[in-house]
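ok here's the first one, seq then struct tokens
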Amino acid sequence: MERDDLIQDHNYSISANHNEAQGVVIRKKIWKVTGILTLITIVEVLIGAFIKQYDSVGEDNFLWPYVKVGFLVLTVVKAAYIVLIFMHLGDERKSFKWLILAPYILFILYLIFICLTESSYWHEVFQGVNSINP
């Protein structure tokens, strides 16, 4: 059996090439994706660098719960965008996109629910231990 890429008399291997106009469109899309992902990452880094969990006095920062939710949202947005672009899900029908993304979103929401539930449980447990052993 001969390899498909070595067969010279088939025209389908030639159709994989593109002209310069199509190359410009592809490069523009790559730069757009790179710019969006870089912008989201810069926002995440700046938020993490300038908004701290505790203020200068040592008390909880009132913005911290919003920062945590913001990190979760930005991370899920980046992950969904990567799946849509690099896995070519963005080129599919809307119903197929939701068929793929809906279980992912539900799973992420479930994980967040479990993390919040468990963290509040352990917080209560440790508060009980601290009240017993001062």
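and now the second one, same deal
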Amino acid sequence: MPLVHLVIGLSLVQFFLFGVAVSRARGRYQVPAPATTGNEVFERYFRVQMNTLEQLVIFVPSIWVFACYFNASVAAALGVLFIIGRFVYFRDYVREPRGRGRGFVLSAVPNLALLIGAVVGAIRAVIAHL
């Protein structure tokens, strides 16, 4: 499980750094708080951060539960792929929003695998205890 804990921590560090990037973009593109619109490039940074938050709501509990019921090393490997996907998504979306697909897939597929595995593992555990 330490690998899973490390991957979760790294995903949260990545999210924090995305927030730093949004803060810098806010200054660079002169979008004063609390506004979240006003400059297209700033909005790209902001959308990456918000989309990552949306994905983390699924990722963090899913990787944890998957690791508990299946295999922590597999969970960690899927988690690393998720983090890489989020980085690619960030880079590509900020450059050109239409190019975000590759990074989205690289993070959505492992996220979905972790979620399905977590639910299946929990169902199997419930059935085993009946």
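notes on #2: The chain has a mean pLDDT of 97. Residues 7 and 77 are 9 Å apart (CA to CA).
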